[in-house]
Amino acid sequence: MTDHLIFNRNRVRQHRDRADAKGDFLLKEIAARLADRLGDMTRKFPQALDLGAHNGLLAEYIKGKNGIEMLVQSDLSAKMIAQAKGWRLVADEELLPFAENSFDLVISAGSLHWVNDVPGTLIQINRALKPGGLFLAMLPGGGTLKELRQSFEQTEMNASGGISPRISPFIDVRDGGSLLQRAGFELPDSETLTVYYEHPLKLLHDLRHMGETNALLKSRKGFTPCSLMMLMVDYYLRQFSDAHGRIPATFELVTLTGVKPQPKIV
After folding, report:
1. Please, what are the domains in the chain?
2. pTM of this structure
3. What is the 3-state secondary structure (H, E, C) of the chain?
4. pLDDT at residue 163 above 90?
């Protein structure tokens, strides 16, 4: 049963339980970009679902847009969703508790990259949408944290001759297209956001506050040795620092968009 699983969903929930507003810059950026895309549409979506709502941040950005009359907000973490205002519930993205044809819009900001069964979740989302309903989501893509991934991999390979899984295998935009088509949706697109830090440890600090640290099932148990962490930091600084001594952190943002087909008239 667990052979095909990638993430420890309990650990994902625990990380989100501990998250706070100190590291929510990425979520704010994703929410703002999704709100802009939604606002560009002329359609109205009276019944909407914010799937993986975290603390309800996206609701602030889409409030009053596109004729949304009721926004249901759901999240895996009870502690996170308790901070949201309005309609809210605890729900796992892998097992949606919503009836068929419930929503005009399902929107998701920065959550679906922690799902094990992405095709299954997309099929459930399709089922929960009304005919003609819109699915709109943004999540980190395959190029995300490429500098941090390389720094860990090269450092650990040099130190021990092996590599431990430390950073999630984010979805590739091409794979996203295949998954969407299998679930009856359209093709995705992607854009890149580069954030600059004074030091790699500040990036790791922000990832912890986001609740976005390692939740891989096959990750090495226990803490990363301080000596290995310092070697990783040194590699990151040597390989990626710019002329001002800052280091980049790349976030590839993949947007998934789809409309549930209207039933065919025979």
Report:
1. 9-259 (3.40.50.150)
2. 0.90
3. CCCCCCECHHHHHHHHHHCCHHHCHHHHHHHHHHHHHHHCCCCCCCEEEEECCCCCHHHHHHCCCCCCCEEEEEECCHHHHCCCCCCEEECECCECCCCCCCEEEEEEECCHHHCCCHHHHHHHHHHHEEEEEEEEEEEEECCCCHHHHHHHHHHHHHHHCCCCCCCCCCECHHHHHHHHHHCCCCCCEEEEEEEEECCHHHHHHHHHHHCCCCCECCCCCCCCCHHHHHHHHHHHHHHHCCCCCCEEEEEEEEEEEEECCCCCCC
4. no
